[in-house]
Design brief:
heterodimer; A: 418 residues; alpha+beta; nine-stranded mixed β-sheet; three-stranded antiparallel β-sheet; 32% strand; B: 94 residues; 3 strands
Chain lengths: 418, 94
């Protein structure tokens, strides 16, 4: 008897079988909707950004005016504000479901970062590494090639907020911030501190408009009586109170809530100093302009790596906090306070736009513990915040000195009283 | 700061037999350390999105119902007051 050596071909396992209802629902389901707001800048599709006056491609941002300048004919212009161009400020109270602009679409995990562009001017092929930069110079004819098409790897956002603060102004802000914190700064940091090493970086954010309703339930107490009783030598104060079951509900809209689009920066905790970047928010996101990679010339940029679904829990958390702050004023009656025990959120609709926001960033890696310290300057408002490595021995010595001094005074008072 | 602390401690000392005064050294030392560390590292700072975002809210609705009475307690406030701690999450109802 011969046996067939070929094994019967096994079907590929793709999860447990669906129930009949689920199969039917999947078959009837509409195809996944595409981006709801199309933000592609059509005029830049060839990768070249030409001066509208003379056609030169030698274009970059002039920081002092926030406008693009042609380095050939000195013509200045700017892209349209996305607020008006795509109607982002309107209709927040009528938002339904999740509206996603094309630049905030999901990041394709398998898309390559390296893109090859054919220079339209001389025909050379130029490679752009979209993980680190969205433009490159043609090495032959010096044309600037920009990643202006919204390629499917999520590298290109919908909008960009141009730098306004110049590098010199940023250096001054950083120097001022650090000089106020010299006394207990780490010795090595003081030696190695060079604010001129500041970098202009466009950081990726998701800017969200949302319509939500939140509800809260808890206990509140109202004081009804207060009296003191004598216990031995001491007077003890007692209270009587009525306990209430409290419920509150509020509907609200938020305009331009700004959330980190980089997973590395979104993790905030004692193990890092990421909160510094978060602290320099908010930006004047209403002034963001339509995507044009020429705004990025001379600056570095970071690619977004969080999709809308990954950021959604963070948004819900912030909406619940906003609702709680809104109902705070209605709790005046409860003079002993309110303890919220349950909360509920319904997000009626949200609109997501991917945006590059400008930051002047000075970073310093502390050798002893490997921690990365930042001093960050909001390149629109100038708000500055930072983390300076502390010299623990110096700080402990200061604390010990103050403690000893106070203890000495306390001892003197005790002796005097005795 | 030091003088404020001492003037605050003197009346307490006369009430409770002056034992409190001995805490001045360790408390002052710890407060100095904490205050400077925070000034340098700023790890308590955060963007105040509850205040700095454009928010348009409808009037707050809701109600309250008396469910009990505390006839005698030494606590001057409700236990676990979180009405100002907007970011402290509680049980989420779906």
């Amino acid at each position: 008897m011969t046996q067939d050596s070929a094994e019967p071909k096994q079907p590929t396992f793709d999860g447990p079988p669906l129930s009949l209802e689920e199969e039917l629902a999947a078959a009837k389901a509409e195809p996944e909707p595409g981006p709801s707001i199309e933000t592609v800048n059509e005029s830049l599709k060839d990768g070249l950004n030409r001066c509208p006056k003379c056609g030169s491609t030698d274009v970059q941002l002039r920081g002092s005016t926030g406008m693009l300048v042609c380095l050939f004919c000195r013509n200045e212009w700017q892209e349209a504000r996305v607020e008006e161009e795509f109607g982002l400020g309107e209709g927040i109270d009528q938002l339904e479901g999740t509206v996603i602009a094309s630049g905030a679409g999901d990041i394709a995990a398998d898309a390559a970062d390296q893109l090859t562009f054919k220079c339209e001017a001389c025909g050379a092929e130029v490679v752009v590494d979209t993980a680190h930069a969205l433009n490159a110079r043609c090495h032959w004819c010096r044309h600037t090639l920009n990643v202006n098409q919204q390629i499917p790897n999520g590298a290109v956002p919908d909008a960009v907020l141009p730098f306004r603060l110049t590098k010199d102004e940023a250096v001054e802000k950083i120097r001022e911030f650090a000089s106020k914190r010299r006394l207990f700064a780490h010795k090595r940091f003081k030696k190695e501190f060079v604010p001129e090493n500041v970098l202009g970086v466009y950081l990726p954010y998701l800017v969200i408009d949302a319509r939500a309703e939140s509800q809260y339930w808890g206990k509140g107490e109202v004081q009804t009586r207060r009296w003191t009783e004598k216990q031995g030598d001491n007077n003890v104060t007692y209270y009587a109170a009525d306990v209430y079951q409290v419920a509150r509900q509020v509907s609200f809209t938020v305009d331009d809530l700004t959330v980190e689009g980089s997973s590395e920066r979104a993790q905030i905790g004692p193990a890092n100093t990421n909160n510094i970047i978060n602290t320099i928010l908010p930006f004047d996101t209403k002034n963001a302009v339509k995507w044009n990679a020429s705004y990025l010339v001379g600056f570095t940029s970071e690619k977004r790596d969080l999709n809308v679904e990954a950021v959604r829990p963070h948004l819900e958390d912030q909406l619940l906090s906003i609702g709680r702050s809104q109902v705070r004023a209605s709790l005046g009656r409860f003079d002993r306070g309110v303890r919220w025990e349950q909360e509920k959120l319904d997000v009626g609709g949200s609109r997501w736009v991917s945006m590059y926001l400008p930051v002047w960033l000075y970073s310093y890696r502390q050798e002893s513990n490997g921690m990365l310290h930042y001093i960050a300057v909001n390149a629109r408002t100038g708000e500055t915040m930072g983390s300076i490595p502390v010299s623990q021995p110096k700080l402990l010595l200061a604390a010990f000195t103050v403690g000893t001094f106070l203890e000495g005074i306390a001892g003197a008072i005790l002796v005097a009283m005795a | 700061m030091t003088l404020d602390l001492i003037t605050a401690l003197i009346p307490m000392a006369s009430d409770d037999g002056a034992v409190w005064l001995l805490a001045a050294g360790p408390a002052g030392g710890a407060a100095t350390y904490w205050a400077f560390y925070r000034y340098y590292r700023n790890n308590d700072k955060s963007h105040q999105f509850e205040r700095d975002t454009l928010i348009a809210a409808q009037p707050v609705q809701g109600g309250e119902e008396k469910v009990g009475h505390i006839s005698k307690t030494r606590n001057s406030d409700i236990e676990g007051d979180n009405s100002d701690k907007y970011r402290q999450r509680v049980q989420r109802v779906q």
